[in-house]
Specification:
- 81% of the residues lie in helices and 0% in strands.
- The chain is built from 26 helices and no strands.
- The chain is elongated, with a radius of gyration of 32 Å.
Length: 559
């Protein structure tokens, strides 16, 4: 009998035994559920490791002074270790069993997390990342991977990268401990010829009242077929009969990785930073949808089938990659600037640009000197000063952060730029005065029990008022009041003014709060009040007007 005939007989025998055994294997018991939970803890570790590089990027680069190349080496070391883990996973499992493999993997995983947590240079960082990669290369399940990734996307916003690495030890230790309470794989025990232990393992998994004799005999027959059949080698895959399967399998894996999925997952924080979207908010959104999207995939694969779902998934990835490409591309806009005359910063100081310059710089000064940066950067200290729990206050702000920004987008189209700016600045003015009186009463020992509530109301009200108008509208108006020929120079000057005064406020804010909290907010109240007068007297309505109309109105103002 030829080798190919032996292989066909082996495959036919395995399919027959699989069909005979399907009914018994469908029985779900507590032991099966617990064993599954313990097994997929390893994949949870993978998710934690995948999410770690995104959330720890800023902290590691700042603390250890890593370059982009060095951090990229750190991030990719896990996949490099995963390659080696995948190569040895089958052999290791055959030698020491499934439980032994998981214990073996967790030794590397625990060592890797500890090495990362206490690393002082890139060598130790890379070694630790490689070690965790080697461990997770031995096991992988999508849902629990998503759970781990989701967890790290959330807590990574609040925890230092060294402590985050130590938290990664928790699922590793959990699996090491719980492995003592689950049985070894019955098939592996059957393969090793340990029939008595194989039956005991099956009995535990199927339940005390189940008859496991038929399943145990099936496993024994299957193992006998393996022993009788020819031993497969890696080169056997390159036979013509396996070519379609090999092309499909390898092709799908190449598509999965070359599509950029690993890059985005490992460094999603840098993508948000590059696009100007708050990394903390973006990672929170991903954390919220991570598990539901995996569950949705499990449901859809049964409803739609593998091929339609793969096509739909890849089409979505294709379209959103294109969307991101266009989002990051400003070539067309820059080409328009290049066609016109080149402006210099001194060109802005001509008389005809004076109103635009005063409005643009004035709005940026008002935006920063109102205290917005100080409150936003150090909101925790404001809550502490007012006696309101910082954790609860930050949670309240986190909940309203997105809705208030969306409200601003809606209102700007309903009300227009100028009315919304006036409303926003008026709100900031009133809530600054409210905070000033709140802290003033506290300093005199009055209304101590109400001051924490007043502080929370004042901070939430101030930041909400800021977000719906003053937070974004100065940038919109700045882009609408300058002619094209000086827009680049104007953007540079106005942005410089914004960041300069942002630094002044951010630097001075803590000193001012320590000096006199009530006086600090009275100063911000005065600036906001002056801002109301400035906007009313100087800032034109730009909604629905052409650049020519706006320039004409500004020219009339000069004359």
């Amino acid at each position: 009998m030829t080798m190919s005939e032996n292989q066909r007989n082996l495959e036919a025998g395995l399919l027959l035994n699989k069909n005979r055994n399907d009914i018994n294997e469908c029985r779900i018991t507590v032991a099966v559920l617990f064993s599954t939970f313990v097994a997929v803890c390893g994949s949870f570790c993978f998710g934690c490791a995948a999410g770690y590089s995104s959330m720890a990027q800023t902290g590691i680069i700042n603390d250890l002074g890593l370059s982009v190349a060095q951090y990229s080496m750190f991030g990719s070391s896990m996949t490099f270790g995963g390659m080696f883990g995948a190569i040895f996973s089958g052999k290791v499992a055959d030698l020491i069993g499934r439980k032994g493999t998981m214990w073996f993997g967790q030794v590397f995983c625990i060592a890797g997390w500890l090495t990362i947590a206490f690393a002082q240079n890139t060598i130790w960082l890379d070694a630790g990342r490689f070690s965790t990669g080697f461990a997770v290369g031995l096991f992988s399940y999508v849902l629990m991977q998503s759970c781990g990734c989701s967890l790290f996307y959330v807590i990574g916003n609040f925890i230092h990268w060294r402590n985050l690495a130590l938290i990664g030890l928790i699922p590793c230790i959990l699996q090491v401990v719980t492995l003592f309470f689950i049985p070894e794989s019955p098939r592996l025990l059957g393969k090793w010829g340990r029939e008595k232990e194989c039956r005991a393992s099956l009995q535990l998994l199927r339940g005390d009242d189940a008859d496991v004799s038929e399943e145990a005999n099936t496993i024994k027959e299957t193992m006998a077929l393996f022993d009788q059949g020819p031993k497969s080698k890696i080169m056997d895959l390159f036979q013509r009969r396996y070519a379609p399967s090999l092309v499909i399998g390898v092709g799908l894996m190449l598509l999965q990785q070359l599509s950029g999925s690993s890059g985005i997952m490992f460094y999603v924080g840098s993508v948000f930073d590059k696009g100007g979207f708050p990394k903390s908010i973006g990672s929170m959104i991903l954390a919220v949808i991570m598990i539901p999207k995996s569950i949705l995939g499990v449901i859809l694969v049964e409803k739609m089938g593998r091929r339609p779902l793969l096509l739909a998934s890849t089409t979505g990835m294709c379209l959103f990659s294109l969307f991101l490409a266009f989002s990051f591309s400003f070539r067309e806009t820059m080409a328009l600037f290049d066609q016109g005359p080149k402006s210099k910063i001194m060109d802005l100081f001509q008389r005809r640009y004076a109103p635009s310059l005063v409005i643009g710089v004035g709005l940026m000064l008002l935006q920063q000197l109102s205290g917005s940066s100080g409150i936003m950067f150090y909101v925790g200290s404001v809550f502490d000063k007012g006696g309101f729990p910082k954790s609860i206050g930050s949670m309240i702000l986190a909940v309203i952060m997105i809705p208030k920004s969306i409200l601003g987008v809606i209102l700007v189209e309903k009300m227009g730029r100028r009315p919304l700016l006036l409303a926003s600045t008026t709100g900031m003015c009133l809530f600054s005065l409210f905070l000033a009186f709140s802290f003033s009463f506290r300093s005199y020992g009055m209304l101590d029990e109400l001051t924490p509530i007043f502080t929370c109301i004042g901070v939430v009200g101030f930041l909400s008022s800021f977000a719906i108008g003053m937070g974004g509208l100065p940038w919109i108006i700045m882009s609408e009041i300058f002619p094209m020929n000086v827009k680049v120079s104007a953007g540079t000057l106005v942005t410089l003014a914004n960041w300069s005064f942002s630094w002044i406020v951010a630097f001075a804010y803590n000193f001012m709060i320590e000096w006199n909290a009530s006086g600090t907010f009275l100063i911000f109240f005065g600036i906001c009040a002056a801002g109301i007068a400035f906007i009313y007297a100087m800032v034109p309505e730009t909604k629905g007007r052409t650049l020519e109309d706006i320039q004409a109105s500004l020219t009339d103002f000069v004359q």
